[in-house]
Specification:
The chain is of the alpha/beta class. The chain is built from 15 helices and 21 strands. Strand 7, helix 5 and strand 8 form a beta-alpha-beta unit.
Length: 496
């Protein structure tokens, strides 16, 4: 077997070894003996160097006209498109998601990059009249400076692109700390940005673990904004670290997303959505459909059919085109899922399928878990209100729409929700009353598009949104400009 490739950090336009020489292995979760690469285990010294490089580059990058910045992003999008298949295969090997989903992940990065390239000619402000004569008023966007970006492993190219591209188009420089489970996809993305003509220091890449590399990045006085996607527990620590210096912060955290299946739903369509929403990416999505609230009139039929569909899903290596569900990301995540399944049993939920690690044949070489359905769940059960991040779904009966909405809203999170119904009145009531930042009608809770805001309510985030023009509001500062050409002192609110 060939020795795995050795990778480096990227700072100031140069690839560099970690200051302390420590490294970690990147493993294939479908065959955990397979080493995909050796990556730097960076520390505080590496973060300091990366932030310094970003700060130096910021002096000139902020002055590059936004349309010119957009041209570089457009070039990057073209390179991503040309290399899509290669990038997707690398992603499947290191993250485990099936190849079709990995292609979608890369496509999302492509879409975001093209979208933000276009914003280079649309960083619009406002022009408006003044309350005083011979006075002109407008607003413009200004860059923040250095942005620290911390990204998760479940969308290892899409989420870094969500953060990097709007930051760059607004004139910021960035330091990216990707998840240690999926460093190769981040390396591929930064290599493409390098090849697209970004000046040295505009994008910097530091590999490593959260406490050793992520925490110093968050605390760095040279970082003006932090964008973090991950768990609520770590997000709370990040928020506290940023609060002392009033650092701008975007948090995108957990979800316990719900599908409502009403008595008039198209059950075939609802089943397709439930299977895809619950078990796509092996349930490792912040938008996964981990709760299904079903009207009692169709509860038995829906649950029986859902179990048959879940039990028939094929697990395996995501590079196999016949495979429908890949592995969990690592042993720790698999043990966490096992723990929640045991909790569900002790709480009295009815386990109808799955509920065990899959070890048959080649599956024993990876971190696979059988798609799992719990029925007759109570809304207060831990499996029905805590995020599991695995292929486990809780089915909850309801009597009517009002009760379904009450159940749906009875969790700490508020990311995504959906309803299956043929009744437009029910759809609009659910749209109005469900406490989530994303809502679907007759579709599962996954499938967000890059030109709409992405984010949630309650403990899912802190009010900011990713993607679309909403991201520009996080990565830029508004500056109001007043130009008085009256040639005399005019005092607003006094001389009117």
């Amino acid at each position: 077997m060939n020795a795995p490739a050795v990778y480096q950090n990227y700072m100031g336009g140069r690839w560099a070894e970690p200051s302390e020489g420590a490294t970690f292995e990147n493993l294939n979760p479908a065959a955990c003996h397979e080493r995909l690469g050796i990556f730097p285990r960076s520390g505080a010294k590496d973060v300091v160097a990366a932030v310094a490089a970003a700060a130096e580059a910021s002096k000139t990058w902020r002055l590059v006209p936004a349309p010119k910045r957009g041209e570089i992003l457009f070039c990057a999008a073209q390179l991503l498109t040309a290399r899509k298949e290669e990038l997707a295969r690398d992603m499947t090997r290191e993250m485990g998601k099936v190849l079709e989903e990995a292609r979608g992940d890369v496509q999302e990065a492509i879409d975001m990059t093209f979208y933000m390239a276009g914003e280079g000619r649309r960083l619009f402000g406002q022009t408006t009249t003044s309350e005083l004569p011979n006075k002109f008023c407008m607003s413009v966007r200004s860059p923040i400076g250095v942005c620290g970006l911390i990204t998760p492993w479940n969308f290892p190219m899409a989420i870094p692109a969500w953060k990097i591209m709007p930051a760059l188009i607004c004139g910021n420089t960035v330091v990216l700390k990707p998840a240690e489970d999926t460093p190769l996809s981040a390396w591929n993305l930064v290599k493409i940005l390098e090849a697209s003509g970004l000046p040295p220091g505009v994008v910097n890449l530091v590999f490593g673990y959260g406490p050793e590399a992520g925490a110093p990045l968050v605390r760095s006085p040279g970082v003006g904004a932090v964008s973090f996607t991950g768990s609520c527990e770590v997000g709370r620590d990040v928020a506290q670290a940023c609060a002392g210096s009033f650092k701008r912060l975007c948090l995108e955290m957990g979800g316990k997303n719900v599908i409502l299946v009403m008595e008039d739903a198209n059950l075939d369509l609802a089943l397709d959505g439930a299977v895809w929403g619950a078990f796509g990416t092996a349930g490792q999505r912040c938008t996964a459909s981990s709760r299904i609230v079903v009207h009692k009139a169709v509860y038995r039929e829906f649950t029986e059919r859902l179990v048959r569909r879940a039990a028939s899903l094929k697990l395996g290596n995501g590079l196999d085109p016949s495979v429908q569900v890949g592995p969990l990301i690592n042993e720790a995540q698999l043990r966490a899922v096992e723990g929640y399944v045991e909790i569900g049993k002790t709480e009295g939920a009815r386990l109808l399928c799955g509920g065990h690690r899959a070890t048959e044949g080649e599956l024993g070489r990876g971190w696979f878990y059988a798609p799992t359905v719990f029925a007759d769940c109570e809304p207060g059960m831990r499996i029905a209100h805590e995020e599991i991040f695995g292929p486990v779904v809780s089915v909850i009966p309801c009597n009517h729409l009002d009760q379904a909405i009450e159940i749906a809203n009875g969790v700490l999170y508020g990311l995504s929700s959906s309803i299956y119904t043929r009744d437009v009145n029910k759809a609009f009531r659910a749209m109005r009353d469900l406490e989530t930042g994303i809502f679907y009608v007759n579709a599962p809770t996954i499938g967000a598009e890059t030109h709409l805001p992405f984010g949630g309510m309650k403990q899912t985030g802190n009010g900011h949104r990713e993607a679309s023009t909403a991201a520009l509001d996080f990565y830029s500062e508004w500056k109001s400009v007043y130009i008085d050409y009256s040639d005399r002192l005019q005092r607003a609110q006094i001389d009117t």
